[in-house]
């Protein structure tokens, strides 16, 4: 099956070479309701066979559970995988979706040691600040992260949901390989400031939730009625109530383009994000999340789809019509602080 393998790209000027699509592993342990552990493990193996090398987790995903779950896979394939994890968000045990954000150096040190223990590896390939704690200067946070690079605990640095100004300040302290932020047909706010800054600085973009947390695939159309009580998407303004119905109607052009290519809407959503690399001139490595082998195959196959100018034009107006914010509190995203 080597002909199905995806191609590779360098993550930032000095970052690691990775498959052009990564795998988001969050849903294997957290956020989107229960997942089948055996099928998730099979999905990880299938992804690797198809050339996916960047695996995305965070200490916040199930309070460490996701890192622990991934550890056997990482250890079995240590030299083939690029392990990306994050610090910066925690939740009280009784409120799993409440967020406490911390970026202070002693906290970072405590987090990296805990992640290394759970992952059972000596070094993290890409260590991200998950969210910005505005009470700590970004220079101080990145200096503490750089210290971890010097000590050999971490290979490369990344930042999630930073503003363009925060990225510039960080890059002045230590090279940043990647910015991970939400980017999809539904969520394009980072195009205003963050994407141009990343391009200028030689930093790669790692779009998270490239399938709009599944909404762009048409697999659910209203979180209130279609998803379980434990599903995080029930807290998100654009997936509930009247917003959800209005947003579901926006998917028609995605279905039209999918029909023309004989592929799924999910594949068109992924092809669109990937094509932003060519449109905007910087490395872009989306990390769609799935817990299923068949979807790993479907999603990686989307790296071979090229959308025409007229198809891009048809998809262009969607994001500006989306009802509801990405998060209940938009300062949690870079656009809320730009
Ligand atoms: N930095 C951050 O703040 C942040 C925030 C959110 C996420 N992330 C990272 O980004 C990764 C991806 O984001 P995400 O999981 O939120 O959203 P996503 O990738 O946009 O969508 C994931 C959802 O789509 C479904 N799905 C995947 N492929 C599909 C297909 N081909 N057809 C139909 N449904 C499909 C998945 O369900 P199945 O499992 O059933 O396939 C899952 O419910 C996460 O795993 C996490 O690692 C980072």
TrEMBL record:
<keyword id="KW-0560">Oxidoreductase</keyword>
<dbReference type="GO" id="GO:0016491">
    <property type="term" value="F:oxidoreductase activity"/>
</dbReference>
<protein>
    <submittedName>
        <fullName>Aldo/keto reductase</fullName>
        <ecNumber>1.1.1.-</ecNumber>
    </submittedName>
</protein>
<dbReference type="InterPro" id="IPR036812">
    <property type="entry name" value="NAD(P)_OxRdtase_dom_sf"/>
</dbReference>
<dbReference type="Pfam" id="PF00248">
    <property type="entry name" value="Aldo_ket_red"/>
</dbReference>
<feature type="domain" description="NADP-dependent oxidoreductase">
    <location>
        <begin position="22"/>
        <end position="316"/>
    </location>
</feature>
<dbReference type="InterPro" id="IPR023210">
    <property type="entry name" value="NADP_OxRdtase_dom"/>
</dbReference>
<dbReference type="InterPro" id="IPR050791">
    <property type="entry name" value="Aldo-Keto_reductase"/>
</dbReference>
């Amino acid at each position: 099956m080597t002909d199905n393998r995806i191609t590779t790209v360098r993550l930032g000027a000095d970052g690691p070479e990775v498959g052009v699509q990564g795998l988001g592993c969050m849903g294997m342990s957290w956020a989107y309701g229960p997942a089948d552990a055996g099928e998730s493990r099979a999905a990880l193996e299938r992804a690797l066979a198809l050339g996916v090398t960047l695996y995305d987790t965070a200490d916040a995903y199930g309070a460490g559970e996701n890192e622990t779950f991934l550890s056997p896979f990482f250890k079995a394939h240590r030299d083939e995988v690029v392990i990306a994890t994050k610090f910066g968000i925690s939740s009280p045990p009784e409120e799993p979706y409440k967020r406490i954000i911390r970026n202070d150096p002693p906290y970072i040190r405590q987090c990296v040691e805990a992640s290394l223990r759970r992952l059972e590896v000596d070094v993290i390939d890409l260590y991200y600040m998950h969210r910005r704690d505005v009470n700590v200067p970004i220079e101080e946070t990145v200096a503490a992260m750089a210290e971890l690079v010097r000590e050999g605990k971490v290979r490369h640095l990344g930042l999630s949901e930073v503003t363009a100004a925060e990225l510039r300040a960080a890059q002045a302290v230590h090279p940043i390989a990647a910015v991970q932020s939400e980017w999809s047909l539904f969520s394009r706010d980072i195009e205003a400031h963050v994407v141009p800054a990343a391009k200028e600085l030689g930093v790669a973009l790692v779009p998270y939730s490239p399938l709009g947390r599944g909404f762009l695939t048409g697999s659910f159309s209203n979180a209130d009625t279609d998803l379980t009580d434990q599903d995080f998407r029930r807290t998100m303004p654009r997936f509930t109530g009247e917003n959800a119905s209005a947003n579901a109607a926006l998917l028609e052009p995605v279905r039209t383009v999918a029909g023309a290519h004989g592929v799924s809407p999910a594949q068109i959503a992924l092809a669109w994000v990937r094509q932003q690399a060519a449109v905007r001139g910087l490395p872009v490595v989306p990390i769609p999340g799935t817990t299923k082998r068949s979807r790993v195959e479907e999603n990686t196959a989307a790296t071979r789809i090229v959308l025409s100018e007229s198809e891009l034009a048809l998809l262009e107006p969607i994001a500006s019509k989306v009802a509801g914010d990405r998060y209940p509190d938009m300062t949690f995203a870079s656009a809320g602080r730009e």
